[in-house]
């Protein structure tokens, strides 16, 4: 039998003075541990590479692909807390004095907790309950009413709707245009058998990552994890067969307008990215370059932001940022203003002027230095490190490479991104208008 030293890999980043321990367990679970000396709080997150976008796949042990009902990843997350003994997984975390949570997004589902004491007990519990599915006709039916209420709540949220309408305007076929929770009709069709197919395929340890961070001993952490890990779960060999829809480069439609009970029009202006299906450092560099560009153009204090704010076109809710995944990416500009079309026209004018006249080198250097400072500051946040580490890891990116990639970004990279990304034909606008317009 191998010694721990022969199995556990140690990664050292001299630039940011961080260490990372890594090991793949026999059933395929990838485990990462980052020591943080002097920190009182400890944090762990266990995530699966399975989100609301994963609707068509070949289940474990089968040969034909299936399509599951929309919202099933989110539904499955809800059901993971119900235990065979009738208890709720959250109850034991509370008993140990820990704070626990879970979330589902388009691309992954994660279960997490933070604690200052009883950490080993909490870590054992996290692994055990996520590796113990329990779905019955009765408990699945009960959950449908709970999730239906959650869906209706989001249906009544204008900020959520303006965002999803922007996605629907950008994407013709990709599942990102489908609400993470699905709709009431789809979730009422979900069965225990369907949940088990998803669980046995995507919650296989070989499709999951566990990240632990805190003032802990790496060998003790690994011992706890190996004892808690259900080593009898059979590892899936090779990659899970998924069937994402082929998304055209063209947008679905230029504009979507809806009316809600709001006092002022809300808008999302979005630019669909053509440069997709990247992984690793190539994806990370595109993200970093795009982030710097968005900060230069849209952030508080920028020429565009100040101009529109001083003219009363937008309020202080105005924001622009880049959202990056493997299969899709986009820049999203959100805010409130009396005339969203005028805001869009003004943004277009500024972008075209920057393309002709060029960006500010001084502004680039300032934005880049600010990004470096922000990243170093965030490295003191366990939640930031853990959540971003796992999200990046599923895209073959190591967050410890972020600063190196950021420092390598040149002014020309940002100017080139400006010309290739911000194309009018890839631009959409989603607007939420007030139900009643008051006359002056």
Automatic annotation (TrEMBL):
Enzyme kind, highest EC tier: hydrolase
GO molecular function: hydrolase activity; metal ion binding
EC number: 3.4.24.-
Sequence ranges assigned to domain Peptidase M16 C-terminal in this UniProt record: 189-370
Top-level lineage group: Bacteria
Xref: Pfam families: Peptidase_M16, Peptidase_M16_C
InterPro entries, alphabetized: Metalloenz_LuxS/M16 (IPR011249), MPP/UQCRC_Complex (IPR050361), Pept_M16_N (IPR011765), Peptidase_M16_C (IPR007863)
Keywords from the UniProt entry: Hydrolase
Domain Peptidase M16 N-terminal, chain residue ranges per copy: 70-182
Classification via PANTHER family: METALLOPROTEASE, ZINC-DEPENDENT PROTEASE
Name of the protein in question: Peptidase M16 inactive domain protein
Source organism: Peptacetobacter hiranonis (strain DSM 13275 / JCM 10541 / KCTC 15199 / TO-931)
Organism classification: Bacteria, Bacillati, Bacillota, Clostridia, Peptostreptococcales
């Amino acid at each position: 039998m191998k010694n721990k030293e022969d199995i556990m890999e140690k990664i050292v980043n001299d630039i940011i003075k961080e260490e990372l321990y890594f090991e793949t367990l026999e059933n395929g679970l990838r485990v990462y541990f980052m020591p943080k000396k002097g920190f009182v709080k400890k944090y762990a997150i266990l995530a699966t590479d399975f989100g609301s976008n994963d609707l068509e796949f070949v289940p474990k042990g089968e040969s034909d692909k299936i399509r599951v009902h929309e919202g099933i990843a989110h539904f499955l997350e809800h059901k993971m807390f119900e235990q065979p003994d009738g208890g709720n997984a959250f109850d034991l975390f509370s008993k140990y004095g820990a704070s626990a949570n879970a979330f589902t997004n388009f691309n992954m589902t994660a279960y997490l907790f933070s604690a200052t004491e009883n950490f080993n007990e909490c870590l054992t519990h996290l692994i055990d309950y996520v590796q113990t599915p329990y779905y019955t006709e009765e408990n699945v039916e009960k959950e449908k009413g709970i999730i239906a209420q959650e869906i209706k709540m989001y249906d009544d949220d204008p900020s959520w709707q303006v965002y999803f309408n922007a996605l629907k305007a950008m994407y013709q076929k990709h599942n990102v245009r489908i609400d993470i929770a699905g709709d009431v009709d789809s979730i009422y069709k979900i069965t225990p058998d369907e949940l088990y197919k998803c669980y046995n395929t995507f919650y296989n340890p070989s499709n999951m990552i566990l990240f632990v961070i805190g003032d802990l001993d790496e060998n003790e952490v690994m011992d706890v994890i190996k004892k808690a890990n259900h080593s009898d779960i059979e590892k899936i060999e090779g990659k899970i067969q998924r069937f994402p829809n082929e998304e055209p480069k063209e947008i679905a439609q230029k504009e979507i307008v809806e009316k809600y009970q709001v006092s002022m029009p809300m808008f999302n202006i979005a630019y669909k990215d053509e440069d997709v299906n990247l992984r690793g450092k190539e994806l990370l560099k595109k993200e970093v370059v795009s982030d710097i560009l968005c900060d230069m153009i849209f952030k508080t204090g920028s020429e565009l932001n100040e101009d529109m704010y001083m003219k009363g076109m937008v309020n202080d809710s105005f924001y622009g940022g880049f959202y990056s995944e493997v299969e899709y990416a986009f820049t999203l500009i959100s805010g409130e203003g009396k005339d969203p079309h005028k805001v869009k026209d003004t943004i277009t004018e500024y972008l075209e002027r920057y393309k002709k006249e060029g960006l500010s080198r001084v502004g680039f250097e300032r934005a880049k230095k600010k990004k470096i400072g922000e990243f170093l500051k965030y490295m003191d946040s366990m939640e930031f490190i853990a959540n971003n580490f796992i999200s990046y890891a599923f895209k073959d990116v190591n967050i410890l490479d972020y600063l190196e990639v950021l420092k390598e970004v040149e002014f020309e990279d940002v100017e080139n991104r400006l010309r290739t990304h911000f194309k009018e034909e890839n631009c959409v606008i989603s607007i939420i208008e007030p139900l009643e317009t008051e006359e002056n």
